[in-house]
């Protein structure tokens, strides 16, 4: 983990309530897709954790959904503004288990960490299949970005306005070797039940301190409670205990 000052270079909406922000500065602490940064916002005590979507040594892109006061305030931040950030947080995805035909599943704002993961898997010679799940067509983002990487992409919408009607589990392909998933808890639970291979899931549970001190982000596992911020956010399918 590193505390650093990042400068906003771009901050623009992708859909009605989902925004993409690019920040410049020292991002050398980011090592793996699935890690996150924790942003200090003026006037807010707790930092806001947001997954890394894509990154280089001196820049990072994040995608955030406006759900409350903090993310709403982020939409008003202009290029040039600097933010105090913790970078390189969390364990991230382990690509060594992917096999030849990994499947990447992103639900809503669970989609962004799958982008950096897709790039890494492709760099390692894999051809990932991707399922992106949204409620309705107007909420879809990053479909073309995944296609531009060369991924085989399926989109699902709950109302059937685009792609396969239903949930990500309605578009599971035959014959994938392993899976990686990030999205809301009901989606992760459904994937856990439907997918037969092993996999890794990223949890975007609500956080407190963000660095392992308060237990506010704990989830139940076969090895006791684990902290999403410190031990995760990525957990193995086999270690998760669902209520
Ligand atoms: C490891 C990690 C990675 C994350 N990555 C992303 C990401 O890439 N993009 C993104 O949009 N969001 C992500 N989140 C969620 C994001 O941190 C929260 O949505 C954000 O902190 C809310 O701040 P706020 O001030 O706008 O909302 P608040 O005012 O704090 O809360 C407003 C409402 O949102 C709900 N809420 C707050 N936090 C969460 C949460 N974590 N999950 C579900 N509901 C929540 C609250 O219950 C409340 O109803 C991530 C969270 C974690 C822990
Ligand atoms: S947020 Fe405090 S331990 Fe995870």
Which H/E pattern describes the elements?
EEEEEEHEEHEHEEEHEEEE
Indicate the radius of gyration in whole angstroms: 17 Å
Strand content: 35-45%
Small-molecule binders = flavin-adenine dinucleotide, FE2/S2 (inorganic) cluster
How many angstroms does the end-to-end distance come to?
A: 32 Å
Strand order of the largest sheet: 4-3-7-1-2-6-5
* Arithmetic mean pLDDT: 94
User: Given the structure, what is the number of helices?
Assistant: 4
Largest sheet: 7 strands, antiparallel
Unreliable runs: none
How helical, in percent, are the residues? 10-25%
Shape: globular
Number of strands: 16
Q: Look at the helices and sheets and give the structural class.
A: alpha/beta
Task: Note the main attributes of this structure.
243 residues, alpha/beta, seven-stranded antiparallel sheet, seven-stranded mixed sheet, 15% helix, binds flavin-adenine dinucleotide, binds FE2/S2 (inorganic) cluster
Overview of this structure, please?
The protein is of the alpha/beta class and 243 residues long. It contains four helices and 16 strands. A seven-stranded antiparallel β-sheet has the order 4-3-7-1-2-6-5. Strand 5 and strand 6 form a beta hairpin. It starts with a strand and ends in a 7-residue tail after the last strand. The site of flavin-adenine dinucleotide has 21 residues, from strand 4, strand 6 and helix 1.
